[in-house]
């Protein structure tokens, strides 16, 4: 599967043969007046090289090569259905699908029309879907049979691949970099999940960091895969769309749960050369000392890796594991890159070319010591706004700095992660907001108050732990409350441990003091 290298080199943001310093010094964000991501990732390749492999589909066990021409035709069928439903520019289109050609085609179809795609996770339950569909105002969803059953209570128009009409041909809508294209919901670290709205320029904004994390992605023979779902920004814009844009075949082989044997099979059968592994997957591979031959690059993000993991990865994969950093609101802002500079254990890496990262104080001024990690306005992957939430958008910034909520410090030009300011729980690669779980548990008739925190765990980094005060005369079991959350939110975010207390630590205004609960959970784990 040789790349049409001339076109791929033209599309890449980082050229070969230059130092990191030279790449940063000479970097300029492209400022086109018109750009449409559907054209970038599909239509242009379908016109140039229709037989070029776009997606390597391994979902059925046997490898099926989906060309750019076939992906384009599938996206036109989705577009024909969307148009028949009256979808117009600016309308929101839900995509409730795991890794599959239809998932990619659905986003592409929405973007070509000037609509806004809304990725949705197949592990979401009723309440999680309800909050995102209700907030976004999506009234149509592309899904599969399982997803159609999940969506039946909402009264939306849904379609599966078998129900799609014949394709039509329409010109791509003229859009600019800041015209809305995709609405990706955060993990809900504080309050309900917020929708980060991104424009058509967001894909190019990801490229410097993505290319760094894969040792200058876009080399001949590259094949890209991640076990992370394409419903999250990490799967969608760290892997799928950059791969399609660069002409690097992307593997569709989502596993319901990470399985080492399946992972090794996928890598072998699809000749995978470039992988984004969530840290938990790496820990599972390390526990079994599972080796993967033939890799050219391994990236990881979501939580820091230690020196021991980096050393094992170097031996097991024959390459450095490049850690990268970002969040839904502004992604792939920093990365390690073994091809450009030494990887430093304990540090995330260096700013991707085009990104200005600062460590700022409470006033939004850069500081030399520990402070809040922030990204300066003008970054290519920065969100336009939180959907229908101007107050939260304003609170995300201090002057011209988007504040991530993480604490960090500079170390000889490397960004060292210190910790989080908010209460986000990082578990098995998922970022889980405690507020949404608390809200769910509070709807149970037996729960009076609840506090949810992360408890340290050697495999998952953290597990979700709930401290519950029950109502007088009620006695729900831990199993009952766990099932309550599983059925309403997501199977990955239920509390794996529940303790029942007489009272929770509260502020004078009646808010749960999660800091004390986190300290208690940490003590329990020692």
Note the topology.
Layout: H1 5-11, H2 20-25, H3 37-48, E1 53-57, E2 64-67, H4 68-84, E3 92-96, H5 101-113, E4 116-120, H6 126-136, E5 140-142, H7 145-151, E6 157-159, E7 180-185, E8 195-199, H8 202-213, E9 224-225, H9 233-246, E10 250-252, H10 260-269, E11 274-276, H11 279-287, E12 297-301, H12 307-317, E13 321-327, E14 330-335, E15 347-351, E16 357-360, E17 371-376, E18 385-386, H13 390-395, E19 397-398, E20 401-411, E21 414-420, E22 425-427, E23 430-432, H14 434-442, E24 447-457, E25 461-470, H15 478-488, E26 497-500, H16 514-525
In short:
The chain has about 525 residues and is of the alpha/beta class. It holds the Pfam family AMP-binding. Keywords: ATP-binding, Ligase, Nucleotide-binding.
Name the features:
526 residues; alpha/beta; Rossmann fold; GMP Synthetase, Chain A, domain 3; eleven-stranded mixed sheet; four-stranded parallel sheet; 32% helix; 25% strand; globular
* Class from secondary-structure proportions: alpha/beta
Report the biggest beta sheet as strand number plus sense, adding barrel if it closes: 11 strands, mixed
Q: Average pLDDT value?
A: 93
Q: What is the correct CATH architecture of one domain?
A: 3-Layer(aba) Sandwich
Task: Count the DSSP helices.
Answer: 16
Please, what is the CATH homologous superfamily of one domain? Answer: ANL, N-terminal domain
* Rg value: 22 Å
Q: What top-tier CATH class of one domain fits best?
A: Alpha Beta
Number of strands: 26
Approximate strand percentage: 15-25%
- Report how far apart the termini are: 50 Å
Share in helix: 25-40%
What name does the CATH topology of one domain carry? Rossmann fold
Low-confidence stretches: none
Shape: globular
């Amino acid at each position: 599967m040789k790349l049409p290298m001339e076109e791929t080199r033209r599309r890449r943001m980082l050229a070969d043969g230059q130092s990191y310093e030279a790449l940063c010094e000479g970097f300029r964000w492209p400022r086109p007046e018109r750009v449409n991501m559907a054209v970038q990732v599909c239509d242009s390749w379908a016109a140039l090289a229709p037989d070029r492999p776009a997606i390597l589909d391994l979902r059925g066990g046997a490898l099926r090569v989906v060309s750019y021409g076939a992906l384009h035709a599938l996206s036109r069928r989705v577009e024909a259905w969307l148009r028949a439903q009256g979808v117009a520019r600016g309308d929101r289109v839900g995509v409730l699908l795991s890794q599959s050609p239809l998932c990619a085609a659905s986003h592409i179809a929405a973007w070509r029309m000037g609509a806004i795609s809304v990725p949705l996770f197949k592990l979401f339950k009723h309440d999680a879907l309800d909050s995102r569909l209700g907030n976004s105002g999506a009234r149509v969803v592309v899904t599969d049979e399982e997803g159609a059953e999940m969506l039946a209570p909402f009264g939306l128009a849904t379609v599966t691949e078998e129900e799609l009409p014949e394709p039509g041909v329409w010109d791509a809508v003229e859009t600019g970099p800041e015209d809305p294209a995709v609405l990706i919901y955060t993990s809900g670290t504080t309050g309900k999940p917020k929708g980060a709205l991104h424009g058509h320029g967001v894909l190019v904004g990801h490229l410097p960091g993505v290319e760094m994390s894969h040792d200058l992605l876009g080399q001949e023979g590259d094949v890209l895969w991640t076990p992370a779902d394409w419903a999250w920004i990490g799967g969608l814009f760290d892997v799928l769309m950059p791969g399609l844009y660069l002409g690097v075949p992307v593997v569709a082989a989502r596993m319901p749960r990470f399985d080492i044997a399946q992972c090794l099979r996928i890598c072998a059968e699809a000749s995978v050369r470039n992988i984004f592994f969530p840290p938990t997957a790496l820990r599972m591979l390390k526990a079994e000392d599972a080796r993967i031959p033939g890799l050219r690059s391994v990236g990881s993000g979501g939580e820091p890796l230690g020196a021991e993991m980096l050393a094992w990865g170097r031996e097991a994969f024959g390459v450095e594991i490049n850690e990268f950093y970002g969040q839904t609101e502004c992604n792939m802002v920093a990365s390690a890159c073994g091809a450009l500079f030494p990887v430093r254990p304990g540090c995330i890496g260096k700013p991707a070319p085009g990104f200005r990262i600062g460590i700022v104080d409470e006033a939004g001024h850069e500081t030399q010591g520990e402070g809040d990690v922030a990204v300066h306005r003008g970054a290519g992957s920065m969100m336009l706004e939180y959907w229908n939430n101007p107050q939260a958008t304003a609170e995300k910034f201090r002057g011209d700095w988007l504040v991530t909520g993480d604490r960090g410090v500079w170390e000889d030009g490397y960004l060292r992660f210190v910790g989080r300011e908010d209460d986000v729980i990082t578990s098995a690669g998922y970022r889980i907001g405690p507020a949404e779980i608390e809200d769910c548990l509070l709807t149970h008739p037996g729960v009076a108050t609840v506090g949810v925190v992360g408890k340290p765990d050697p495999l998952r980094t953290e597990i979700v732990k709930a401290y519950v005060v029950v109502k007088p005369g009620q006695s729900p079991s831990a199993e009952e409350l766990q099932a309550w959350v599983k059925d309403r939110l997501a199977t990955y975010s239920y509390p794996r441990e529940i303790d029942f207390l007489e009272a929770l630590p509260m502020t004078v205004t009646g808010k749960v003091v999660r800091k004390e609960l986190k300290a208690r959970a940490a003590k329990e784990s020692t």
